[in-house]
């Protein structure tokens, strides 16, 4: 008899580290607080360094714990925030719809993340782009939805959404979308690993299987 078995357990990483990046004042802390506690602070203080909160989310009957890292957007806190990028599963690049310069800075944020998180293969990393403060008036808006979509296309990012931490519009959806994006990236990675390493050929003798990279997974 001959066959191939995928040894990777499903939902192997139920704890997902989500890092929120973007210029100071775009609403990162407010987004996190709206998502975690359904609360909005009109007079939110600048974050110093990083803060994190956990929140469970259910998608397709699977439960995930999001560990959400809110970082300080001001340049002077760079050395305090960058050590926390490593080990991230999802990166939320955030700008404010009424602040064009925060939109222009997304390149800088993306590059800073890739560098300090030490991501080699950036094309498959689950970035999601969030345009916050969608409650502002048309007159105050400085970034159109088309500009957002164009930037994402140019940067190979498939997930983007406009939110308002103030009126709660799309905040739950943004985090859900982020996890769904992560799931798609994971399943692509699983398929690749299935092909190259994460499989056991049952036609092999048991001694050969023990020496393969996945053999230990059956005992753990
Ligand atoms: N109109 C509007 N204001 C918002 C929204 N989200 C946040 N704000 C306001 O924007 C300001 C900055 O919000 P923060 O959440 O502290 O911004 P931040 O990105 O965490 O800033 P740093 O900690 O400096 O990086 C606060 O006065 C908030 O009340 C929103 O969706 N709409």
TrEMBL record:
The highest taxon in the source lineage is Eukaryota
Q: Which GO terms describe its molecular function?
A: G protein activity; GTP binding
Cofactors that this protein relies on: Mg(2+)
- Record's GO cellular component terms: cytosol; late endosome; lysosome; phagocytic vesicle membrane; plasma membrane
| EC numbers on record | 3.6.5.2
Cellular location(s) = Cell membrane; Cytoplasmic vesicle, Phagosome membrane
Q: How does it sit in the membrane?
A: Lipid-anchor
Supply the PROSITE patterns for this chain.
RAB, RAS, RHO
Query: Which GO biological process annotations does it have?
Result: protein transport; retrograde transport, endosome to Golgi
Q: What is this protein called?
A: small monomeric GTPase
Q: Which organism is it from?
A: Pyrocoelia pectoralis
The beginning of the lineage is:
Eukaryota, Metazoa, Ecdysozoa, Arthropoda, Hexapoda
């Amino acid at each position: 008899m001959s066959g191939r078995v995928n040894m990777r357990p499903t939902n192997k990483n139920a704890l997902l580290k989500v890092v929120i990046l973007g210029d100071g004042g775009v609403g990162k802390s407010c987004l996190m607080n709206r998502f975690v506690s359904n609360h909005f602070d009109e007079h939110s203080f600048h974050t110093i360094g990083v803060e994190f909160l956990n929140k469970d989310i259910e998608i397709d009957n699977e439960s995930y714990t999001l560990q959400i890292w809110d970082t300080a957007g001001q340049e002077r806190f760079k050395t305090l925030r960058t050590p926390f990028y490593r080990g991230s599963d999802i990166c939320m690049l955030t700008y404010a719809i009424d602040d064009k310069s925060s939109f222009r800075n997304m390149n800088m944020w993306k590059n800073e993340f890739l560098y300090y998180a030490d991501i080699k293969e950036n094309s498959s990393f689950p970035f999601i782009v969030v345009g916050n403060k969608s409650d502002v008036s048309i007159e105050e808006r400085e970034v159109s939805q088309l500009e957002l979509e164009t930037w994402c296309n140019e940067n190979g990012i498939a997930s983007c959404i406009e939110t308002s931490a103030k009126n709660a519009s799309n905040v739950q959806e943004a985090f859900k979308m982020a996890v769904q994006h992560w799931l798609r990236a994971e399943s692509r990675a699983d398929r690749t690993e299935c092909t190259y390493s994460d499989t056991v050929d049952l036609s092999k003798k048991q001694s050969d299987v023990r020496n393969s990279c996945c053999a230990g997974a059956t005992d753990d």
